[in-house]
Amino acid sequence: MATKTQNSRAWLFVLPVVVLVAFNALIPLMTVVNYSVQETFGDNVFFWEGVKWFEQVLHSERFHASLLRQLMFTSIILMIEVPLGVAIALSMPKKGIGVSVCLVLMALPLLIPWNVVGAMWNIFALPDIGLLGRMINGLGIDYNFTQQPGAAWFTTILMDVWHWTSLVVLLAYAGLRSIPDAYYQAAKIDGATPWAVFRFIQLPKMKRVLTIAILLRFMDSFMIYTEPFVLTGGGPGNTTTFLSIDLVKIALGQFDLGPAAAMSLIYFLIVLLLCWVFYTLMMRHEAQ
Q: Per DSSP, what are the bridge partners of residue 46?
């Protein structure tokens, strides 16, 4: 009986990429850790501060407010984009030229650079010259995202839904296309309703891709910066100042490198922890 021999030399092709990525990640991380425990007044002179900056950030009302806004924004867009993406994927054709047309249309928003998305929606939503702004005001609704907190939130969420729902659609559609026709034939023979087919066949088979979609959208939305910064600049006031925008203001606007470094590490740990919680909850029955 012949025995298989494993050849691990293929890892040699991946090793340079792994080393390069690790180098590019570790050097900035070491720099951030260095700034988070020290203070400097210039001339490359540092003073040891220990955990002072971490305590300052964790007890800061400004940080708590930014974190709350970030959690609210992420929760809202996940509750909108995931069901909407699945619904669109279910309604897309399975055969013919319509498949290619739908896939291209779904991919188009993902190809637009983030700063361009923010600039597009800034012009689109302006109350005086923007198509969206003039249309909403034409309906008798007072709308001005540059001055009204509610309108700023609505515009930011609408922009993100337009930009990123396509990612959920493409992943969900890929999961649906991987389901063998035998499952649908068996369901048809059993007289299953469309809801039963979705609940017991399609949704379980999409579990892995939806897990990936939720994790990707959570990480992207929790670290969002360019789109809302270009759209609203974090305003009006601090209405749309999410964690990433607040971090940049502290680091570059105020040049408080110590608090900014500590905040960035806390930010990173929050994202890592919440991603682990999401993944654990969604995959807890996978081994059963």
A: 40
